[in-house]
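Sequence and fold:
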Amino acid sequence: MRYQVKALKAGGSVVSLSLEARDDEDANEQAQAQGYIVLGVRKAGGVALPWSFGGVRFPLVLFTQELLALLRSGISLVEAIETLAEKESRSNTLRVLAGLLERLRSGQSYSNALQAFPDAFPDLYVATVRASERSGSLQEALARYVAYQTQLDSVKKHLVSASIYPVILMVVGGLVALFLLGYVVPRFSHIYQDIGGDLPALTRALIAWGAFVERHTTLLPTSVVLLVVALVVWLRRPAGRYWIGRQLVRIPAIGERVRVYQLTRFYRTMGMLLMSGTPIAQALSMVSGLLDQQLRHRLSIALQRVREGQSISVSLDTCGLTTPVALRMLRVGERTGMMGDMMERTAAFHEEELARWVERFTRTFEPILMAIIGIVIGGIVLLMYFPIFELAGSIN
């Protein structure tokens, strides 16, 4: 759920943040982790239907790629944004570009202009641009952010593509089982009621289920539809997704991979921020939103230790935010002064490791899932035809 947070910046100005959080307390914690003093939290306005997916999002990566191409051709920043605004046809995107131009022409820095549109430009993007303004390397910072976001999207697409086939199998298998239990079994049940005989308990239960469905032909379909709608609404809520995530984490094999995936995003983002010139303490406070509540709490402890003068490798390792490979990489980064580069190399190593694990898991899980679906559907069909076998035996 999206929350509007009214907060006080370090410089004393009041800002309005738009954050995705489970509840107002979570939104409060996220704002405080980013260094703000929270003045108030409220739910964002608007009513979302269970099948709606929100408004059109600002195409941040595409905008950055086009802006980078124009800047590399020698066009100034204002002229580049004017060019992008002239070709833009989407009203929401055009409104953001017009707002940027207005602020740039009034003398504001590019980072301050971006900060006025938190829904379009996340804090990580603004921090990257602000750091580049101090070093005079805007083009390099934009290229680094595009590479960062492209790599994250690549990992997400790999995970989604690996889960498509198992999901299709489960949906198709569930629909077939639902068709058998909701249509075929009731047609057979009233035929078998007069057969009698010593039928297995599961067959008698299946016949009783068919008779129950026939007596409630309207109630059951309505209940199924309402259950599906309720499930969709629940899954769209942060609390529902959070509950599923917590259950996955409790599975030993999957839980460790979920943790490594979160740490991989953490390392990738930290590397991008550090290479852009962002101080370590500020970068740590900005990336807390990438972690779940438990790891976020550990990160806050690690941040406090870094501010007290402890090395980042020791702080993260003590709080359980490293892997054996990451710890060695961080120590090398501290010795060589290339912490940002080591963070990105650590993320790349774990991304390749996760890709190999996902491929092995899907190869193992898919045949197991097909076998389970086959056993369920075959069991229903066998139990449904068992009375016919009994009838044929009595005739003989």
Summary: The beta strands are 2-8, 14-20, 37-43. The longest strand covers residues 2-8. The chain is about 75% helix and 5% strand.
